[in-house]
Design brief:
alpha/beta, 284 residues, 5-stranded parallel sheet
Amino acid sequence: MGRLMEHTVFLVGPHRSGTTWLGAAFSSSPEVAYWEEPRQVWEYGNWFRADDTLDRQDARPSVVRHIRSRFNRYATRRGARIFCEKTPCNCLRIPFIDAVFPESFFVLIVRDGRSVFRSVREELKTGSHWRRIYQRLRETRISEYPAFLNRIQWLAAKISRRPLQFWGPRPPGWRKWLEDDPPYLVLARQWAATAEAAWEGIAQLDSDRRLVLRYEELVAAPREVLGACASQLPFCDLAPVAEYLARTAKPSRRDAWQNELEAESLQSIRPVIEPTLRKLGYDW
């Protein structure tokens, strides 16, 4: 039996904002047990929701016990003193996570919504590979399988690699968007709602429990950015994390949207995403 976990770090950010890349960097550290998107654990006991939002009242004692036990066991089996995970839906659940893990640390990564729009648009054309879904099913306990029941059609589309209508976090109102809005506006609304929820949720935490990273800065200078943040995560050696990021960074992705998004598309989504962009510190 390994050592019990001492710290929990939750990476949050809208899908295609760099959380997978940042999570892989944390997983390169020998003191970190990293779990990629254990949605089925987070949704335990809160099945069949109309969207992915969870709040403090959803953190009932049985739910808290289950989630804490699952993550602690995961870290203990790997002999790691730090547990780390990323699940994009958690942008909509920060108060809930705080109720389950009041001692935890949060890292929010923000990215220009235009970049996210471009990336998600490409992802919807192909879907994800069935191997990742198979791995997630293997990581799931029988008691957690209800988490997949209201996603059967979505899973089938992903396994067969058919184009997806909707992918990623489900903010309140997402079904109505699908009914009323063209696909490009659905993507824009999804990013804006998810990013705003994460931004507001992080702001409610004590300053010594949160860190905000900007994707564009992290891609450009990962060693410098994480070096400046070292004092905010004194319990975690960020050197291997920074080295992984420096080795794998692809700065060309930072501004790809400027060459790949049509002017007409940008003007169509501007009314939806510009207010959120400005709130996050981006200019149009």
